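Worked example 2:
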Amino acid sequence: MDLQTFRQAAALLSGEYSLAILRELRDGEWHLSSEVARVLDIHVSTASRFLQRLGELGIVERRRHDARTFEYRVRSPHLQIEVDLSDDSAPLREAVDFYVAYFQFLFRQIRQLGLPKIEGDLERTLVAEHQDLRSVVFQQMIEGSNGGLDHLRDLMAGLHRDLWDVCSQSLGKPTARKIFEAALQEAIDTHPDLAVRCGLARPLEA
């Protein structure tokens, strides 16, 4: 993980319940935050908040349990964190590659439905409402501005919400969620280490 992510992880792991929560996952099985909260006798929101952040930082794995909840696990009871000390800047260029791959997969999924109106609506949303996205991203890459990866994630989250609104209204939420999740999984499979290390999937979860 890069130094920025490491700082966030260190701050989180110093929290009151973090290590206790991690120990509850050491069996390698999938667990809901409600299960962890019950065992530790803490509020569900406390466990959920810690587990969500641990998942975002790649310290634990998470997957969707149902439409409203996630479940979490660690693969091994031996937790190892690798820190890249060679570069203090977030890997913006690689992150852009991840998001480009995601949106390419998404548009391919839509194209396969044979519904040109929806595809056209998506393209108009991308051009009309996010036309400054490219210039902002590439300017940050050139300048190496601090917090660039966080800002990139925010930009992608906004774009994702707008595209999601178009698809969910036209196709219905169940069909749209299936398409978006398939595109996200393809992007993660293409850049698995980067997706986990930098928390790039978080803004793209429908």
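The mean pLDDT is 79. The chain has two domains: 3-73, 92-204.
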